[in-house]
UniProtKB/TrEMBL annotation, chains A, B:
InterPro entries: Homeodomain-like_sf, HTH-type_TetR-like_transc_reg, HTH_TetR, Tet_transcr_reg_TetR-rel_C_sf. PROSITE patterns: HTH_TETR_2 (PS50977). It comes from the Bacteria. Keywords: DNA-binding, Transcription, Transcription regulation. GO terms for molecular function: DNA-binding transcription factor activity; transcription cis-regulatory region binding. Residues 15-73 form the HTH tetR-type domain. It comes from Phytoactinopolyspora halotolerans. Pfam families: TetR_N (PF00440). This is TetR/AcrR family transcriptional regulator. Residues 36-55 bind DNA.
Length: 202, 202
DNA sequence: CCTAACTCGTACATTCCCATACGAGTAAAC
DNA sequence: GTTTACTCGTATGGGAATGTACGAGTTAGG
């Protein structure tokens, strides 16, 4: 799966260039999803031909940047304790996740415009699966709702997280409040509903 | 405010062309947010110069298309009964809103990439204000939560609606289920939370 | 009917951005 | 220390999309 196995060999020099390019791509695309290849080249402080020597197309570069961001996120999220009450576990997961999502929201947007939907799903498989298992467990524990499909809950959490990123970027939501607001919102979404909602057919 | 007052006069011919163009722009951009001017011209069955005779730039055209979609939406939503229990009113509003949002989701996306954020807010002022008043009323009734800022609740509803549109477009969510799922989700978001959430600091 | 507004087709200028060609320098790796 | 992979600058091709030029035809409207 990793790029190491496929390539026969690579000089340490090249390795460093690739790292610089991917890092610059992540940073640049996370600021401006419409960033051009030249922008990334300049940010990386590297020659244009060097970039195209390692990434044949812009699409490949965007994919590499997104994959790198997700891999970094995985390293952080792998340390989150997901045992015990599923609600508490979800809170911990969200508190570790939201800032990651906020940082890479623009990058994800850039990737969505370039990569096919199926590839995007593949790349997000790991975090999606983690949340999936947590929600299923919470359902078995009886603390999460079962009247809505799991995929909907998972994706809605994503939409809320990306929405929060947008709110922060627009200056409407303070980063200090974001964690609390996000946790409260998502917990409400997945919790078992109390009544049937309102006076219903009163 | 309306375009009639500004223009000194316009031939009935032109009026019809503009209507055809705006309608075609709405339909085309709602299918593909990246639709080109030529695509819209072809869909409208009108000459390219005719379009540029009425809309000086593509941005103007997108704005007109979005404004038209929102105006049509307003006509529908104005008839929704928002009296009585705020929860029931919200359900009625959502059931009338979600399909409108789903239809124009791509159009909104197209506009977001072209129009400044402030202009987008202005155009969405009417539906946002309607939801704002409803939420504030529900708070006074004690049926909606007060621990989260109103703007957050409003915008989160938008994000959920757009997310639902995306799920439908991707074929994961059935249109027949959409209403129920959306209502259940949004009601959960705005409802007064029961416990403090989970075992908390147990 | 006759004037002015409107329409249309096609070609074109402009602008952006992706991707490539080329040749010369530089640093890694055995 | 020599080979080979890698790097770099610049110039250039190629495609796509926006907006304009021009001239002729057509329709509304008084």
């Amino acid at each position: 799966m990793s790029a190491d196995t496929a390539r026969p060999r690579r000089r340490a020099d090249a390795e460093r260039s690739i790292a610089r390019i991917v890092t610059a791509a992540r940073a640049t695309l996370s600021t401006d999803p419409h960033a051009t290849v030249d922008d990334i080249v300049k940010a990386a402080g590297v020659g244009r031909m060097t970039l195209y020597g390692h990434f044949r197309t812009r699409q490949e570069l965007v994919e590499a940047a997104l994959a790198d961001a997700l891999r970094a996120g995985e390293e952080t999220l792998a340390h989150v304790d997901l045992t015990g009450d599923a609600r508490d576990a979800l809170t911990r997961l969200l508190e570790s996740s939201w800032s990651l999502v906020a940082e890479s929201a623009a990058l994800v947007e850039a990737a969505q415009g370039v990569l096919p939907a199926g590839r995007m799903r593949e790349l997000h498989a790991a975090p999606a699966e983690r949340l999936n298992e947590l929600i299923e467990r919470g359902r078995r524990q009886g603390v999460f709702r079962t009247d809505l499909p799991v995929f909907w809950l998972i994706n809605t959490v994503h939409y809320v997280l990306h929405g929060a990123a947008e709110e922060i970027r627009a200056g409407r939501l303070d980063s200090a409040d974001a964690g609390r607001v996000i946790v409260a919102t998502v917990q409400a979404i997945v919790a078992v509903p109390v009544g049937t909602g309102g006076t219903a057919s009163a």
